[in-house]
Write the structure tokens for this entry.
Amino acid sequence: MADLSAFPITHKWPAQHPDRLQLYSLPTPNGVKVSIMLEETGLPYEAHLVSFETNDQMSPEFLSLNPSNKIPAILDPHGPGEKPLALFESGAILIYLAEKTHLFLPQDAAQRYETIQWLMWQMGGVGPMFGQVGFFQIFAGKDFEDKRPRDRYVAESKRLLGVLDQRLSNRAWIMGDAYTIADIAIFPWVRNLIERYQAGDLVGMQNFPHVTRALAAFVARPAVLRGLEIPKRS
Ligand SMILES: N[C@@H](CCC(=O)N[C@@H](CS)C(=O)NCC(=O)O)C(=O)O
């Protein structure tokens, strides 16, 4: 039986099954990347809710694992060398889980780097830019009179959606027939832009038919449907 007691995060969120991978998250677009990946791989895991309503992400226990106070984060009792591994940043977690399971990351070196390239494109572009659209569309920024900041992020999001649409114009998924961690990183954000932020008209989703088609295929996957609801908001 793994002993995780040296990790303060387990004092606030005790592990019922310490031999399983521990997930600390919330079903946001960054959070569900990891729950979807875990559902897709079938790895046994235990999900813990990090509530923003009670500022759990700022608690000393959470900060002991991620000093940057953001979900998702994991603690794998069976990390490299069978030692526990704590990890934050969704992109790093996706790469780790793909390497651990040999799933959703091509074995061929060139294809592997190409997948990681698109994963980084999501992490550095899609997430931050779509997130800003959300701020100006439905969160505090919607009351700002000056619309120039919002328009800047909308324009950049349209550009990113154009790049994605072009990439998907002759491929089922980012890497062709192979469904990879790049898809698992990108599509929760596209879904969030449309459904949560209600920004489909703002960014002109009708101009990106290949993105719309791939998003529909993504949300039709049973593991995606399950992952989108994990951890359950209480
Ligand atoms: N680059 C990080 C971003 C994570 C992130 O922004 N998480 C948000 C939820 S989607 C969060 O935890 N926000 C809490 C806070 O800012 O206090 C990743 O991909 O893991």
Q: What stands out?
A: The longest helix spans residues 109-137.
